[in-house]
Each structure stands twice: as C-alpha cells, then as structure tokens.
Amino acid sequence: MSPRDLSEAGAVSNAVAPARPLNICMVISSYHPIVGGAEKQVAQLARLMIDDGHRVQIVTRRYPGLAAREEIDGVQVSRIPNSGPLGSLGFILGAAREIRRLQPDVIHCHSLFSPALAGALGRGLTRRPLLAKPMCGGEASAIMRKPLGRRRLSYLGRAVDRFVVISREIEQELLDLGLPGEKFRFIPNGVDGRRFYPLEHPVKREELRLRLGLPSGVLFLFAGRMAAQKRLPLLLEAWKSVRADHPQATLLIAGANRASGEGYEATFGEGEAIPAALLEQPGIRMLGHVEDMPDLLRACDVFVLPSAREGLSNALLEACATGLATVTARTGGAMDFVVDGQNGLLFSVDDRDELVAALGALAADEDLRNRLGAAAQRTVAEDYDIRRTASGLLAEYAELVTQATAGGSHA
Q1: Which pLDDT tens digit goes with each residue over 218-238?
Q2: Residue 267 binned pLDDT confidence (cut-offs 50, 70, 90)
Q3: Residues 198 and 230 sit within 8 Å (Cβ to Cβ)
Q4: CA–CA gap between residue 390 and residue 59 (Å, rounded)
C-alpha cells in the first residue's frame, strides 16, 4: 500500500497548516557535522520549516570537538554532554532541562530511545505537546528487552501525543506492543527532488564519471554507516559471485561521516569491523564520506540496500529520485513502495543467493535497469517529496498546539 493509499484510509492527519509561526524543538541523538540519513532528513525538514516562517531548535548530544551551542544553516543547535558517570541518563536529564529553557510550542523526538525519554521529561516540565518518531523497525522491541522495558514503553505510550510512523512495519510493531493506534500518524520520510534527479541523457553519465574519476562498466553503489544492521559483509560476499560473472562491474562503497572532531567517531547501534579480505577483493572501491551525493548517484547504475533492519532509508529514496535501479531487502519502508520487478528488486533478509540473483540480473540487463529506475523515480516523485513530509508534520504540530491551547495549556 502506498502512502497515498494510507492517506486515503485516514492514516495521515487532515489538520490545517499552522496559523502562526511555531517554535519547534527537535531532539535527536546526533546532528551536523555528524552526518547520516536521519541527520540529513532532520536538517532538510528544519530548513523547510524555517523558510516557512517557523523557528527550529535542535537538542542533541555533545561529542568531543563540538560546541555547546551554535547556529547551523539558520538552525539553533544545543548540545548536551553524553559522558561522565551518568552517561545517557545525563543526556536525558540535560536535554529535558534544555527543552524547559527553550519553551517550544511543540517537541518532536527522533527515536524512541534517549531522545523520546528526554522529550517526555521535557513535556512534563513545559506541558508542551510531544511527537516521537521511531527511526527504524525494532526500536520498540529493543526497549521491551531492557530492564523495566514494558514500563518504559507504557510511559511513552502515555506521554507521547503523536507517534510519527514512517513504515507499515513499524506501525504493526507498535500495535503489537500495545501502543495506542489512535496516536499514530503515517508521515514517511521524503526526498528533495530539486537536488536528486536523473540525468537528462545517458551520455552525460560517462562525462560525470570521468570528472569524478570513476570507472566505466556497470556501477553499483552502497551508501551508509558501517553498522551491523546494514549487512555490508553480506553484500561483499555476494559480490564475489557477481564479479565472477560480470568482471566489468564495480561496487562503490560510500560511508557516512560520523566524525565529530578531535578524532572522535560517533557511532550508534552495533558497529561492524569488515574483514579486509572482503574489502580488498577485485571490483570494489572505497570512497569514504562523499559530500556530493547527487552527482555520485547520477554517475551510478544500481543502488544496493542489503540492510536487515531499516525505517525508511533516506539513501534509498535519494537513489530512487535519481532514477537508479535498486536492490533492497524486504524490510522497513521499502516494502511500502517497492514492488518487486516493477520499480525495484527485492530479496529476503540475509538471503545471499537471492541477493546474488538480483545483482546479477541488473548487471546483465541495461533495459531492466532503465525500466526499474524510471518507475522508481516516478514513485518517489508522486508520494515521497520532502515538502509533503514537512507539510504533514507542520499540520500535526498545528493540531496539537490548537488542542493544547483549547485545553488551557500555553501554546
């Protein structure tokens, strides 16, 4: 079911846009210059909301080398220490105090982990409405496995006014764990089609490759963090078979910038050490962090997302918007819009043979790549524009602020 179908089914709020400028506080575990899909999505949404006349303030963790407060592209960023004897608890308490200082109209937390707990405490201190967005499938289940996890999830179920759901998989997980479905709003991540768009003519791809120093032949791209859930080793193992049959194919690996300064790397979830033998095999090129992702995507033919767990991958949306054929595991938000064989290829999570077959099919068939890429580009253009995401969130903010005002709370 597409986001459009879900909207027609009433999953997306029909609330009107804010009648006045809002002071919005977003809480997220890390923010620029630490870069990943979540950070990029929040930065784009913040900029759109600021351009619409609102004020956006980010509360995040402070890592070595980063200032306690600064302005980044018009966004006010407050960083809370995450070290010392209290660790994450120190961040939660400090972030809640910062929310009280900021006195926002609405609090929006990205992740059910520490950000949501900080937001819930901040809501108690300010009486401002609270939204929480699970970043990927498995977050709520992971909380349940922690000490007092059921009580913690029950607390969030009461404290959170809206759960922003980005995939049907997450929606079902939250329902299964007993969270109140009437608080769910389906607002998937979006992509900026003004930055990510296909080349006008295939000939320009070769010119772009020359400028970027990339080889000829079919170029596959993996982009993301070196985290266990991303399953890069699975892709590298599958690549041996693909390369044997298609010796002119190349796999490019672009990492996310997790450096905060002073040599510190901000990592979340399980990091993964990739065996050198897998990385050094023929036909693989490590690119490190890439600043100009739009041009890199336009230079490639296929995007691969082998993750075992996702929310709704921003990198996948960017690749689709650029007109690339995609191969992705059957997980997360990809299952909401990728129709196998129509606008992408799907494989079962951790199934190496299915992954090899999908990669091989695309390596061998230019017409298939072009057809899938064009269909993917149409899908995201229709249903996953970042401006639609921002509008949906602002509508929720406006509704909650109006309700809070009617209920006697300051808004």
Answers
A1: 999 999 888 889 999 999 999
A2: low
A3: no
A4: 19
The lowest-confidence range among 10-14, 41-45, 316-320, 347-351 is 10-14
Helix (H) or strand (E) holding 111: none
In angstroms, the CA 162 to CA 314 distance is 22
In the DSSP assignment, the letter for residue 229 is: G
Among 225, 238, 228, 221, CA closest to 347: 238
**pLDDT for 103-131, tens place per residue?**
999 999 999 999 999 999 999 999 999 99
What is the tens place of the pLDDT at every residue in 370-389? 999 999 999 999 999 999 99
What Cα–Cα distance (Å) separates residue 343 from each residue in 221, 255, 350, 372, 373? 17, 25, 21, 4, 7
Q: Pick the more confident residue, 349 or 408.
A: 349
Instruction: Assess contact for 37 and 224: CB atoms under 8 A.
Output: yes
Q: At 288, give phi and psi (nearest 5°).
A: 70, -155
pLDDT, one tens digit per residue, over 292-312 is 899 999 999 999 999 999 999
Given CA atoms 306, 206, 283, 361 in this order, what sign does their dihedral have?
Answer: positive
Strand order in the sheet with 184-186: 69-72, 75-81, 55-62, 23-28, 106-110, 130-133, 162-165, 184-186
**Number of neighbouring beta carbons within 10 Å of residue 67:** 10
89 is written with which tokens? 């608890």
Instruction: Please check whether residue 89 is in contact with residue 57, taking contact to mean a CB–CB distance below 8 angstroms.
Output: no
CB 333 within 8 A of CB 313: yes
- The tally of CA atoms less than 13 A away on the side-chain side of residue 332 is 27
**How many residues in the chain?**
411
CA distances from 40 to 32, 68, 105, 318, 361 (A): 8, 20, 23, 11, 32
Residues with Cβ within 8 Å of residue 47, at least 6 apart in sequence: 73, 74, 75
Q: Which distant-in-sequence residues (6+ apart) come within 8 Å of 2 by Cβ?
A: 336, 337, 379, 383
Give 224's contacts (C-beta < 8 A, 6+ positions apart). 36, 37, 230, 232, 254, 255, 256, 305, 307, 313, 315
State the pLDDT at residue 257: 55
